[in-house]
C-alpha cells in the first residue's frame, strides 16, 4: 500500500463537495495506486520525472509526485487539486526537490523537458523618487545582508535573492515574501525583513549540514523540522479524513513551524516560559504539547489551564479538534488531560473534600471557618468596609482598589492573619509606602472586610484559591498532577501562581507557561521567582504572527509604543521582530462628529461588507463595556442591522457579532470594528476615577493592552471608530 504525504499550498481551500471527492481519491490511492479509475498518469513533457496527475472527477485532477524506494512502500506527495489544464501545467513545470543548501523539500518552477528552459527574471529594479535627487536604497541594506547570506547560508536561488536584496521598501519585501511557493522561503524572508541575524534564521529553521543527494535523502528531508511547516505524513485513514474535511491545508492542527514544534515536543528540567505577541501560536504550542505529553505516557496526569472558564472551554474544543484520541480527565488527579479555568481548579479542590477544605481555611483566615456558600468577586465588600470605618483615613487609603490589590498581592499570598504579621511583611511592587500607623489603619479595614464576609457567608475567588493552596500544601502529601500547562499566564494573580506551583511537584516538565505581558488586561504584574517558579535560561519568544495582516499588526503594536512593559521576571518586554506572513489593507479610521453619525457610519459599513459577500458571523464589533455594546445593538437594529451578542467559546450565529473587548480575547474575526475609541471613553473614565493613584500607571497600561488585544482580533480588515476626538491611547497610530 502506498504512503501519502500531504503538502500545504496556496489556493487550496476547496468547498465541501470537492473536499469529499479529494478524500475519496486519496483513500483509494492509499489502498491501491494501480486502481484504473484513479488514472495516475505521467505527462508527455514534464520537468520532474516524479510528477503525475490523477483523476478526482471529470474536471479536476490531483497533482502528485511519486517517489519509489528500494524495499519500501511507494510514497506519493500530494500537491493539490486543480482544474484539469492548471493541474497539467503545474505537473509539467513544478519540480519537487530537496534544497541543496538547507535540506528542506521545496517546489521549484522550471521548464518541462523538450521546451527551451527560461526562468523569468524576478529582479525588482530600484525605483527612484522623481521628486528626490537621492535614489531609493534597498531595504535590506540597513542590515548588511549579502547575496551569499541568502544563497549559500539560507538556500534562496540567485533570482529570489536578487529580488529580495533589491526591494526598496518593507512593503515591497513583504509582497515578495507572500508570493513565495514554499513555507521556508516565506519565513526566511519575513525574518530578513525585521533584521534577524542569518545564524538566528538558520537556527529557527533548523538548517544544519548540507544534505546528501538521492532518493534516500529525499525521504529523510521530509523529517526535517522545517519541512513540517509544509508537508505532513498521513498515518491512517482517520487522520486523512480529519485534515481534508477540516478544509484548510494550512491548519494549525497539521503544520507547525519548527520552532513551535520544538517547544511542543522538548522536555525541560523545570518550569519553561514561552512568550510572544497575539496570534504567534502560543496556544497552538500548548495544545500540541498537551497531546504529545499524553501520548508519551497515557498514565500522566496533565493539567491544561487558563484564566477563565470560557477560555478553557475553547481549549477543550481545540484539543478535541487536534486529536480526538486524547483522553480528557474527568477530575483532578485522574489520568489524561484535564482542561479547566484556574478558578475551576480551586473550586474542584474545595468540592472534592469540603471538610478538609474548610478546616484548611483556618490557615488563611486565622480562625475556625464555617462553610460559606456565597462566592463573590474579589472586589466585593471593600467599599462598604471603608464606609463602615470609624477612623478618618488619609486620602491615599480611601480607594477600594487599593485594599483589593493589597489583599491579593500581599495579605493572601503571605497568609497574614494578624496585625503583627502585617506590620512586618514585605510589600514589593506596591506603590504606597506604609508606616506602622498606616499599616494599622489598613489592617482594620481588612479585618472589617473579613468579619463582614464571615457574617454574610461569602468568600471571594482569590480566597478559594488561597485555601486550595493550603489544602495541597498541608492536607495531603500526594501531588495531583505531573505536568501543568498554563495559557494566558500574564493575567494570573500571586495566589494563582501559588496554586499552580502546588499542583505539580518540581521536576521535569512540571510547568510550561505561555504569556504575553502586552496582553495583561486583568490584575497586577507578578514576578514568578517570588513564588518558587524560576525560569532563568528556560524562556523563549515567538515572533511570527499567523492571525492578522502586517498592516493590522503594525497598528496594534503602535498602540503599545512609548510605554514600558515588564515581563514576569521584571525584564523589559519588547515588540522587536514581530512580523506577519499576511498582507492586507491599512486599518480604516472612522471619525465622527456626533454619536448618531458614528452609529450611521458603522451600520453602513457592516451593510457594505455583507453586500460584498462577507459571511455575517465573520464580522465583529468590539466595545469597551456591556453598556456600550447594548446601546450599539439597539441602534444597529433600528438601522436594519440585526446582531448577536456572543459570549466567549460560543459559536456565532449567522449575524454580525457584538462583544466586549475583554471577552474577545482568544477569538478572531475576518472584519473587526473597534467601537467608540473616543477621548472620554477609553481609558475608561470610571476606572480612572476609582483607581488608587499608585496604581494609575498600571491601569493605563492595562487599558492600552485592552486596545492591543482588541485590534489583534482582526484577520483581514480592521476599523477604528470614534466621535469627537480619538482616545489619547491612539496617539502613536492616528
Outline of this structure?
Helix content is 38%, strand content 15%. With 734 residues, it is an alpha/beta fold. The protein folds into five domains: 3-99 and 223-246, no CATH class; 119-210, no CATH class; 258-352 and 467-542, Rossmann fold (3-Layer(aba) Sandwich); 374-456; 550-730, P-loop containing nucleotide triphosphate hydrolases (Rossmann fold), CATH 3.40.50.300.
Question: Which keywords apply here?
Answer:
single chain, 734 residues, alpha/beta, Rossmann fold, 5 domains, six-stranded parallel β-sheet, 26 helices, 23 strands, 15% strand, globular
| Whole-number count of domains | 5
CATH fold call of the largest domain: Rossmann fold
Q: Report the sheet with the most strands, covering strand number, pairing sense and barrel closure.
A: 6 strands, parallel
List low-pLDDT spans: 114-130
At the fourth level of CATH, the homologous superfamily of the largest domain is P-loop containing nucleotide triphosphate hydrolases
Strand residue percentage: 15-25%
**Helical/strand content category:** alpha/beta
Named CATH architecture of the largest domain? 3-Layer(aba) Sandwich
Distance between the termini: 60 Å
Strand order of the largest sheet: 10-9-13-14-8-15
Number of strands: 23
Number of helices: 26
GO molecular function: 3'-5' DNA helicase activity; ATP binding; ATP hydrolysis activity; DNA binding
Pfam family, one: UvrD_C
EC number: 5.6.2.4
Protein name: DNA 3'-5' helicase
Protein architecture, described:
ATP binds at residues 276-283. Pfam families: UvrD-helicase, UvrD_C. It is an enzyme of class 5 (isomerase). It comes from Aurantimicrobium minutum. The structure is a single chain. The protein has 734 residues and is of the alpha/beta class. The protein folds into 5 domains: 3-99 and 223-246, no CATH class; 119-210, no CATH class; 258-352 and 467-542, P-loop containing nucleotide triphosphate hydrolases (Rossmann fold); 374-456; 550-730, 3-Layer(aba) Sandwich (Rossmann fold). It has a 6-stranded parallel beta sheet with strand order 10-9-13-14-8-15, sandwiched between helices. The protein is globular, with a radius of gyration of 29 Å.
Amino acid at each position: 500500500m502506498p504512503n501519502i504525504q500531504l503538502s500545504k499550498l496556496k489556493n487550496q481551500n476547496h468547498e465541501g463537495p470537492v473536499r469529499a471527492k479529494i478524500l475519496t481519491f486519496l483513500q483509494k490511492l492509499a489502498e491501491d495506486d494501480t486502481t484504473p479509475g484513479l488514472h495516475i498518469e505521467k505527462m508527455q513533457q514534464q520537468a520532474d520525472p516524479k510528477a503525475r496527475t490523477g483523476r478526482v472527477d471529470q474536471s479536476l485532477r490531483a497533482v502528485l509526485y511519486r517517489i519509489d524506494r528500494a524495499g519500501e512502500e511507494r510514497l506519493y506527495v500530494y500537491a493539490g487539486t486543480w482544474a484539469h489544464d492548471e493541474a497539467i501545467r503545474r505537473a509539467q513545470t513544478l519540480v519537487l526537490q530537496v534544497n541543496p543548501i538547507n535540506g528542506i523539500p521545496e517546489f521549484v518552477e522550471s521548464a518541462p523537458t523538450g521546451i527551451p528552459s527560461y526562468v523569468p527574471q524576478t529582479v525588482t529594479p530600484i525605483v527612484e523618487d522623481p521628486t528626490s535627487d537621492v535614489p531609493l536604497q534597498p531595504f535590506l541594506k540597513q542590515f548588511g545582508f549579502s547575496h551569499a547570506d541568502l544563497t549559500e547560508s539560507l538556500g534562496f536561488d540567485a533570482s529570489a535573492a536578487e529580488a529580495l536584496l533589491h526591494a526598496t521598501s518593507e512593503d515591497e519585501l513583504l509582497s515578495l515574501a507572500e508570493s513565495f511557493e514554499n513555507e521556508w522561503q516565506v519565513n526566511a524572508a519575513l525574518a530578513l525583513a525585521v533584521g534577524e541575524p542569518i545564524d538566528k534564521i538558520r537556527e529557527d529553521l533548523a538548517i544544519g549540514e548540507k544534505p546528501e543527494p538521492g532518493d534516500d535523502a529525499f525521504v529523510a528531508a521530509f523529517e526535517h523540522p522545517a519541512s513540517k511547516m509544509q508537508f505532513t505524513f498521513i498515518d491512517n485513514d482517520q487522520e486523512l479524513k480529519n485534515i481534508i474535511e477540516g478544509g484548510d491545508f494550512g491548519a494549525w492542527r497539521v503544520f507547525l513551524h519548527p520552532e513551535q514544534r520544538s517547544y511542543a515536543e522538548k522536555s525541560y528540567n523545570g518550569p519553561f516560559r514561552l512568550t510572544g505577541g497575539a496570534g504567534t501560536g502560543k496556544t497552538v504550542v500548548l495544545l500540541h504539547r498537551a497531546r504529545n505529553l499524553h501520548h508519551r505516557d497515557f498514565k500522566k496526569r496533565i493539567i491544561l489551564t487558563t484564566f477563565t472558564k470560557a477560555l478553557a472551554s475553547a481549549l477543550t474544543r481545540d484539543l478535541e479538534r487536534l486529536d480526538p484520541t486524547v483522553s480528557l480527565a474527568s477530575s483532578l488527579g485522574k489520568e489524561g488531560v484535564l482542561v479547566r479555568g484556574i478558578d475551576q481548579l480551586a473550586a474542584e479542590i474545595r468540592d472534592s473534600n469540603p471538610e478538609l477544605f474548610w478546616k484548611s481555611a483556618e490557615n488563611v483566615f486565622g480562625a475556625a471557618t464555617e462553610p460559606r456558600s456565597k462566592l463573590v468577586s474579589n472586589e466585593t465588600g471593600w467599599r462598604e468596609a471603608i464606609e463602615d470605618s470609624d477612623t478618618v483615613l488619609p486620602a491615599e487609603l480611601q480607594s477600594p482598589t487599593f485594599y483589593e490589590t493589597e489583599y491579593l498581592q500581599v495579605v493572601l499570598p503571605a497568609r497574614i492573619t494578624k496585625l503583627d504579621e502585617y506590620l512586618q511583611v514585605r510589600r514589593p511592587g506596591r506603590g504606597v509606602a506604609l508606616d506602622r500607623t498606616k499599616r494599622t489603619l489598613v489592617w482594620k479595614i481588612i479585618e472589617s472586610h473579613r468579619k463582614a464576609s464571615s457574617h454574610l457567608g461569602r468568600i471571594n475567588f482569590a480566597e478559594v484559591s488561597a485555601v486550595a493552596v493550603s489544602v495541597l500544601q498541608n492536607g495531603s502529601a500526594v501531588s495531583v498532577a505531573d505536568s501543568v500547562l498554563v495559557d494566558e499566564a500574564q493575567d494570573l494573580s500571586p495566589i494563582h501562581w501559588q496554586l499552580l506551583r502546588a499542583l505539580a511537584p518540581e521536576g521535569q516538565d512540571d510547568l510550561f507557561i505561555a504569556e504575553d505581558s502586552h496582553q495583561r488586561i486583568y490584575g497586577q504584574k507578578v514576578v514568578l521567582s517570588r513564588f518558587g517558579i524560576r525560569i532563568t535560561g528556560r524562556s523563549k519568544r515567538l515572533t511570527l504572527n499567523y492571525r492578522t495582516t502586517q498592516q493590522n499588526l503594525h497598528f496594534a503594536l503602535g498602540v503599545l509604543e512609548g510605554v514600558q512593559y515588564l515581563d514576569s521576571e521584571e525584564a523589559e518586554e519588547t515588540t522587536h521582530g514581530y512580523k506577519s506572513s499576511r498582507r492586507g489593507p491599512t486599518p480604516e479610521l472612522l471619525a465622527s462628529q456626533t454619536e448618531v453619525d458614528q452609529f450611521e457610519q458603522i451600520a453602513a459599513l457592516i451593510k457594505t461588507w455583507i453586500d460584498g459577500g462577507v459571511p455575517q458571523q465573520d464580522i465583529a464589533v468590539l466595545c469597551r463595556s456591556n453598556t456600550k455594546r447594548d446601546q450599539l445593538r439597539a441602534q444597529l437594529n433600528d438601522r436594519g442591522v440585526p446582531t448577536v451578542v456572543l459570549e466567549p467559546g460560543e459559536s456565532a450565529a449567522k449575524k454580525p457579532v457584538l462583544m466586549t473587548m475583554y471577552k474577545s480575547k482568544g477569538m478572531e474575526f475576518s472584519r473587526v470594528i473597534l467601537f467608540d475609541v473616543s477621548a472620554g471613553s477609553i481609558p475608561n473614565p470610571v476606572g480612572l476615577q476609582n483607581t488608587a493613584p499608585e496604581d494609575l500607571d498600571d491601569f493605563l497600561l492595562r487599558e492600552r493592552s485592552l486596545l492591543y488585544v482588541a485590534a489583534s482580533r482582526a484577520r483581514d480588515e480592521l476599523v477604528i471608530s470614534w466621535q469627537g476626538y480619538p482616545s489619547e491611547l491612539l496617539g502613536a497610530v492616528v
